[in-house]
Structures are given as C-alpha cells and as structure tokens.
C-alpha cells in the first residue's frame, strides 16, 4: 500500500511522527509512506488552497517533502507532483495536536486535507488527539493515538464503508483525552456542537500602540449531545465520524422548494 500523509501542525510536529509510525504499520514492509506536510504550522486554515500565489516545495529526505502552503495544498502537491505517476492508495492527516471534533471540524486544516483527498477520489482519514488533564501530564500526550492509531485505521480499512461517488466519504477520528489503558473502545457518532462556547477574539495593544486581535478558543470540554463525537471522547471512547464535503441540508430541500418556487 502507498500512503500519503500530511498534517496542519507542520513538518516538525510530534503528531506527524506518530502518524508516520501508524502509516508504516499499515503500509507494511513492502509498502510506501510519503510525507508532504506544511513547512510551517497551518492550524485553523480549514480547506484553504493557495489559489492566488505559488507554493514552494522542498525535498527534505527520501519520500519526505515540505510545502509552504496549507494541508490541502500539500495533498494537491502529493497527488499532482510528488506522486503524479504513482497515486497513493490512502491519505492520512494528523495526528493533530488537539481535537477536531464538534464545531472545530469547520476550522480544521487536518480535516481540510482529507476533504481535498476525497474530492480527488482518494480514500482519506483524519486523526486528532484530544487533550485534557488526564493525558496532558503523560510523558507522551499522544500515547492513546500511538497505541490505538494503527488498529483504528486497520478497522476502518477492513470494515468501514467506502464509496467512489461524488463528494465521496472520508472519516474523522478523534482519540479521547485519557491514558491509552483507559480507552473504553471505539464508537461511531455524528459531529456534535458545543453549546455556550465558541471561538472569539481578544484585543491587545503592541508597544508601538497598534491594536491587534488574537483568536481565542472556547472551552473544549463542554460535552456535545450524547452519542456525538465530543461526548464520546470525554467519556473515554475513540470517536469515528463519517463525513462528506457536500454541505447541502437535504432535510429542508422539499420544504424550501414549496416555500420559494
């Protein structure tokens, strides 16, 4: 198996090393793992692509490249430049430093990479490590992803639902904020929404008197509805959420037609 991996935390991020190990186990001794990751951190860029300026790409080693662009740029670089003649069988994105569950999905560059892969017709899985009091103090806060990552990917490859239609399916995996030995199992659930908390901005003034705004995250440990991703993670489960890039709300199409047409 040929696997392309990327992330949004950057080429030197510890979570990328975790993902490399996961990908190597999945690819096996006869497989290939190719890295095309952002040269610098790209957290929060979503599905952004560098449409108005070029992206520099540099080879750092055997099957290892850094691109001065977004995670989606990295996928495009991997598919149409680095692996143009040998398209990968799978794209893995992560392991993100922090969760990409709930409303975080909409901002995530980790998810953006899997969206681009799915739009290009390549199976894709995003993986993120939820952080909290129980795992922040561990020697390796990615411990749960390290010990459960490969088995989760293998389970999805062997038993997951994969299609080849328009806006094809991809998967969002979040590892819970607990020690690896305390993981209760794996559960499938929808994307949740943390009520009463959100991203915001905090103003600051520079020494020169200029006003700057820092984007500020909300409380990540507000549970979502029971059975949805954040709630599952906070209860100690690995969450798996099937996703598509299509944003149409099909539940209101007929009502809207009646009202407007």
- What percent of the residues sit in helical stretches (DSSP H or I)? 25-40%
Task: Name the strands of the widest sheet in spatial order.
Answer: 3-4-2-1-5-6-7-11-8
Terminal CA distance:
50 Å
Order of helices and strands: EHEEEHEHEHHEEEEHEH
Beta-strand percentage? 15-25%
**Helical stretch count?**
7
Structural class, please? alpha/beta
Radius of gyration: 19 Å
How many strand units? 11
**CATH architectural designation:** 3-Layer(aba) Sandwich
Taking the sheet with the most strands, its summary is:
9 strands, mixed
The mean pLDDT is: 97
- CATH C-level label: Alpha Beta
Overall number of structural domains = 1
Query: CATH-wise, what's the superfamily?
Result: Survival protein SurE-like phosphatase/nucleotidase
Short descriptors:
261 residues; alpha/beta; Stationary-phase Survival Protein Sure Homolog, Chain: A; nine-stranded mixed sheet; two-stranded antiparallel sheet; 7 helices; 11 strands; 28% helix; globular
Task: Describe this structure as you would to a colleague.
By secondary structure, the chain is an alpha/beta fold. It has seven helices and eleven strands. It has helices at residues 14-27, 71-82, 109-119, 133-136, 143-159, 229-234, 253-260; strands at 2-6, 32-38, 57-61, 64-67, 90-97, 124-129, 170-175, 185-188, 200-205, 211-216, 237-243. The strands form two sheets. The protein has a nine-stranded mixed beta sheet with strand order 3-4-2-1-5-6-7-11-8, sandwiched between helices. The chain has a two-stranded antiparallel sheet with strand order 9-10. α1 (14-27) runs parallel beside α5 and α2 (71-82) runs parallel beside α3. The mean pLDDT is 97.
């Amino acid at each position: 198996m040929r696997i392309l991996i990327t992330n949004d935390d950057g080429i030197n991020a510890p979570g990328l090393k975790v993902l490399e190990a996961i990908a190597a186990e999945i690819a096996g001794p006869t497989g290939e793992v190719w890295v095309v990751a952002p040269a610098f951190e790209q957290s929060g860029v979503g599905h952004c692509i560098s449409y108005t300026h070029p992206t520099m790409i540099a080879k750092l080693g055997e099957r290892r490249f850094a691109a001065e662009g977004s995670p989606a740029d990295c996928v495009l670089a991997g598919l149409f430049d680095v692996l143009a003649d040998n398209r990968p069988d799978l794209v893995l994105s992560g392991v993100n430093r922090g969760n990409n569950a709930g409303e975080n999905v909409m901002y995530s560059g980790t998810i953006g990479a899997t969206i681009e892969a799915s739009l290009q017709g390549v199976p894709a899985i995003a993986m993120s490590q939820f952080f909290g009091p129980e795992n922040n103090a561990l020697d390796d806060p990615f411990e749960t992803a390290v010990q459960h990552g490969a088995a989760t990917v293998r389970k999805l490859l062997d038993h997951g639902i994969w299609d080849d239609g328009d806006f094809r399916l991809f998967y969002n995996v979040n590892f819970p904020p607990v020690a690896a030995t305390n993981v209760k199992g794996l559960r499938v659930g929808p994307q949740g929404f943390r009520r009463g908390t959100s991203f915001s901005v905090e103003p600051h003034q520079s020494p020169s008197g200029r006003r700057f705004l820092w984007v500020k995250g909300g409380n990540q440990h507000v549970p979502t509805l029971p059975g949805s991703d954040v709630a599952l993670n906070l209860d100690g489960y690995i969450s798996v959420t099937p996703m598509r890039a299509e944003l149409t709300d099909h539940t209101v199409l007929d009502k809207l037609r009646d009202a407007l047409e």
